[in-house]
Structure formats: C-alpha cells, structure tokens
Design brief:
Distance between the termini: 39 Å
Structural class: alpha/beta
Strand order of the largest sheet: 1-2-3-4-5
Radius of gyration: 15 Å
Number of strands: 5
Length: about 150
C-alpha cells in the first residue's frame, strides 16, 4: 500500500483531517507529526474545530514506529480540551489534564482504522454523540462533515 501522510485544515468547515497510512517508519511518523503540529499552529485562536483522524491502512513497519505515533493524537487533543474515549483503557492516561490553548477547542472527533474488530469495539465502548470510531473512511468523513453543534 502506498503511503499517505498529510494534515489539512479547512477554515470554512473548521475541520482538520489527518492521514497516515502504509508501512510507515519512525522517519515517516516524524514527518506526519511535524505536519500535524504545523497545521495546528495555523488554527485561529478561539476556534472550535472538528477532527478526522484517518489511520485506515496504517501498518507501522516496526514496534518503535508504532510507539512513536500512538500517543500523538491523545496528547495533542488534550491541549484542546478533548479526551479520546479509549484512553479509559490505559491506567497511565487517567491523570491526563485537559487544557485549552488560546481558547481553541475540539468539539467532535472521528477515528478511522482498518482493524474492524478493534475499532468496532471502541465504537461500542467509547462512541458517543461527539466522537465515533469507524472502519470506513467514507463513513467517517461523512459523519464528521455532517456533525453540527447545537
């Protein structure tokens, strides 16, 4: 599978889409993280945003490559007043503090991964009105784009 590594900010829809796929190495994970950080720096202060985390087809080449990306999204989103549901699985995450950088906050998130068993279990256990876990990139994108705040 080809690699796809990008993060995009859509000002009009307040949507961040981040994508990493393929048999990635630590170097490629680092490239993805740098793009993610750069994109988050572009978000105007006080923005309420949505995020689509697309790991469909992600297959880290090594254990160290896996370790290098797995905490990136939870730690990043915790700076924007967001706690990913599956963090309840990890004892070390119980004290994760949520903050709001520059008044900017995440209001909805969708996570996509090809491991249907795992992602469907996450959806069953941790899915809620503002956060879902899907094994279909099109379904994921459709849900997050159509998510409306009340």
């Amino acid at each position: 599978m080809n690699h796809e590594i990008y993060t995009k900010w859509e000002k009009e829809t307040a949507l961040i889409t981040t994508r990493i796929s393929g048999a990635v190495t630590e170097t490629e994970v680092t490239k993805w993280k740098q793009g993610l950080e750069k994109t988050f720096e572009e978000i105007p202060k006080g923005t309420k945003f949505k995020i689509f985390v697309n790991f469909y087809g992600l297959n880290p080449a090594t254990v160290s490559a896996h370790k290098s990306y797995r905490d990136t999204i939870p730690l990043l989103l915790s700076k924007y007043n967001w706690r990913i549901g599956y963090l309840d699985l990890f004892e070390e995450a119980k004290d994760l503090k949520l903050t709001s950088e520059n008044g900017t906050e995440c209001i909805a998130a969708v996570h996509c991964h090809h491991d249907s068993y795992k992602i469907n279990e996450y959806e069953r256990r941790f899915g809620k009105e503002t956060e879902h876990f899907f094994d279909d990139p099109e379904k994921s994108e459709s849900w997050i784009r159509n998510y409306q705040t009340i």
